[in-house]
Design brief:
With 389 residues, the chain is an alpha/beta fold. The protein is built from 11 helices and 14 strands. The protein is 35% helix and 23% strand. Strands 1, 2, 3, 4, 5, 6, 12, 13 and 14 form a 9-stranded mixed sheet that branches. α1 packs across α3 and α1 packs across α11. The structure holds (2S)-amino(hydroxy)ethanoic acid and manganese (II) ion (MN) (2 copies). One manganese (II) ion (MN) binds next to loops.
């Protein structure tokens, strides 16, 4: 039976019911929920006639081999893990829509001059280890020893694949921003993916009695953290403190230790790195002023990644078959395509989402837009087929 926008959305609903935190959608790397998600989507891949496996980094892979054993592989991917209290579509829409597109091609008796894989990456968000692209980096072979030291899974590096295998990669993803809605467009190609810095800031002061310790004698870790958070809000690039832990966490005890997360983004790497340097200087000054010890730990830095012009031109051509305007938008959000770009040319297709809202349970997409995206993705594959026949 043909896959439609409605069946794609119904599967997003079904997958959304699988969570590590009842009452909300949360799936972190290699959790029980992620293993259930891989099993469910793996069954859908088998139903579509794909060869299904899970690699050493717990990436789910559905393969449609070409009749030419010497052919290269084209990958349609996105991620199945989520942020905490996520929406239904950030990641899963890309995997389920790609599978629907491939299933329809196979139903029509189509064939491709290249192997095709649909991949559900195991950890794009980094909820478990605060590092992003764990699954796609494992496949790209770009995990560093520091990343591996953080991950309590042995042998994950065996997921590595060779550049020579791949023809290219395309990722369908909700825009997670307001531009498509403001322009009245369903889809757009993506020009580049912004880089990001993920930093853990630890401030260690000294606990004490809230009622007897004079203000000027305190080493208050939270008072040292506050100016850093205020500076992040005004640092001139996108900066977010998403996590804040305060110890010992009693109302009548001066905070002795604070750990906060810093997520810094910009399309230009130099701007991002300069903003991080400014924030580190604030942290050093504020902690010194209070006799608080500072630990500034860069968890991960990922550079901005341009999408491949030739593939993106093909994606724009496919968009132009269905829309009056075929734009190319930059992505402020990170995507597995950024990690996969180490292996081969990559491109992306954005789908309008309501209010540009994402990383929120109210994330939503219109069936009509998903329908357009399915057709664009199919036409993109047909254009690719023409190029490689
Ligand atoms: O954080 C991001 O940009 C992506 O959702 N992982
Ligand atoms: Mn995503
Ligand atoms: Mn996300």
């Amino acid at each position: 039976m043909r896959s439609t926008a409605q069946s794609v959305l119904a599967r997003c609903d079904e997958l959304a019911a699988i969570t590590d935190e009842p009452g909300q959608i949360t799936r972190w790397f290699h959790s029980p929920a992620m293993q259930q998600a891989n099993a469910l989507v793996g069954d859908w891949m088998r139903e579509a006639g794909l060869e299904v496996r899970v690699d050493a980094a717990f990436n789910l892979i559905g393969r449609w081999p070409s009749s030419n054993p010497k052919a290269k592989t084209f990958v349609l991917g996105s991620h199945l893990d989520t942020v905490r209290h996520a929406g239904k579509y950030d990641g899963p829409l890309g995997v389920i829509a790609a599978l629907a597109c491939v299933a329809n091609l196979k139903c029509e008796g189509g064939s491709l001059p290249f192997h095709l894989e649909v991949v559900g990456f195991s950890d794009e968000e980094g909820l478990r280890y605060q590092t992003t692209y764990l699954g796609s980096q494992a496949m790209a072979g770009t995990l560093r020893p520091a990343d591996l030291a953080r991950v309590d899974e042995k042998g994950i590096e065996e997921a590595r694949r060779a550049k020579s295998e791949f023809l290219g990669y395309a990722e369908l993803h909700i825009e997670q921003g307001p531009v498509l809605e403001s322009k009245g467009l369903a889809t757009a190609a993506v020009s580049a993916i912004a880089g990001q810095s993920r930093i853990a800031v630890e401030l260690t002061g000294h606990a004490g009695h809230a009622g007897t310790t004079p203000m000027k004698l305190r080493q208050d870790a939270l008072c040292a953290a506050a100016p850093i958070i205020a500076a992040a809000e005004k640092c001139g690039v996108l900066a977010t403190v998403g996590q804040l832990a305060v110890e010992p966490g009693a109302s009548n005890v001066i905070p002795s230790r604070v750990v906060l997360s810093l997520d810094v983004r910009h399309a230009l790497d130099l701007q991002r790195l300069e903003a991080c340097a400014r924030l580190k200087a604030v942290a050093e000054a504020e902690s010194k002023k209070r006799g608080v010890k500072l630990r500034w730990q860069i968890i991960q830095q990922t550079k901005s990644v341009p999408c491949a012009p030739e593939l993106t031109a093909l994606m724009r051509k496919a968009v132009a078959l269905h829309q009056t305007r075929a734009l190319e938008l930059p992505s402020g959000a990170g995507h597995d395509a950024a990690a996969f770009a180490k292996l081969c040319p990559v491109t992306m297709l954005f789908v309008r989402c309501k209010g540009g809202l994402s990383h929120h349970p109210d994330e939503s997409v219109a069936a009509g837009d998903v329908g357009v995206a399915l057709t664009v993705l199919r036409d993109f594959l047909m254009l690719l087929k023409e190029r490689h026949e």
